[in-house]
Amino acid sequence: MASVRCDLGVAAVIVKDNSVLLVKEATGRYSGHWGLPKGYVDDGELPRDAALRELREECDVDGTVTGIYAIRENLTEIGPAVFIAYSVELARGQIPVASSEIEEAKFIDVDKFDDLNWVSNAMKSIATNALAQTPFSTLDYSDQRGYPYLLHQNGGVKQ
């Protein structure tokens, strides 16, 4: 069976009280639009690691993936496109700051979401729902397998 070329994107979702960490794009077709810290997965990179790399590149903070909030899938002219929004906890005491590709990085209260110019309705939905839902948990079987092997599921019961 042949493999399929896939556009694979990721985001870091960080919730604090009644707010979510959002970034305002400084360049590109979404300049001036708000969304989650996000980007694409590089060759040889786990999607989870890409989400943490993008968070570091865009907001100069480190975090830990704790699960998944959402997966978006659609078809594009090059084939399937998948976007994974990971639940991330910031390392203690870190404060996000905007990088050169980001105009602003800050926690924004859900009550202000309707006032923002969003990258997409899906991005707004992910951010909004993150405040009310429990993400799928992540189990790491990498040590047992001898290579990166993660399971994201509802509940987190090890079997």
Structure description:
It contains three helices and ten strands, in the order E-E-E-E-E-H-E-E-E-H-E-H-E. It has helices at 47-59, 121-130, 142-145; strands at 7-13, 15-16, 19-25, 34-35, 38-40, 63-76, 79-90, 102-109, 136-140, 150-153. A hairpin with an 8-residue loop joins strand 3 (19-25) and strand 4 (34-35).
Task: Please name the defining characteristics of this protein.
159 residues, alpha+beta, Nucleoside Triphosphate Pyrophosphohydrolase, 6-stranded mixed β-sheet, 4-stranded antiparallel β-sheet, 17% helix, globular
Q: What is this structure, in a nutshell?
A:
The protein has 159 residues and is an alpha+beta fold.
Task: Spell out the blueprint of helices and strands.
Elements: E1 7-13, E2 15-16, E3 19-25, E4 34-35, E5 38-40, H1 47-59, E6 63-76, E7 79-90, E8 102-109, H2 121-130, E9 136-140, H3 142-145, E10 150-153
Parallel strand pairs: 1-7
Antiparallel strand pairs: 1-5, 2-3, 3-4, 3-8, 6-7, 6-9, 9-10
- Rounded Rg: 16 Å
In the CATH hierarchy, what is the architecture at level 2?
Alpha-Beta Complex
CATH superfamily: Nucleoside Triphosphate Pyrophosphohydrolase
Share in helix = 10-25%
Number of helices: 3
Task: Provide the β-strand percentage band.
Answer: 35-45%
Order of helices and strands: EEEEEHEEEHEHE
State the name of the first-level CATH class.
Alpha Beta
What structural class do the secondary elements suggest? alpha+beta
Strand order of the largest sheet: 5-1-7-6-9-10
Number of domains: 1
Molecular shape? globular
Got a strand count? Answer: 10
Provide the low-confidence segments as ranges: none
Query: Sheet with the most strands?
Result: 6 strands, mixed
* pLDDT averaged residue by residue: 92
> CATH fold name, please?
Nucleoside Triphosphate Pyrophosphohydrolase
Distance between the termini: 30 Å
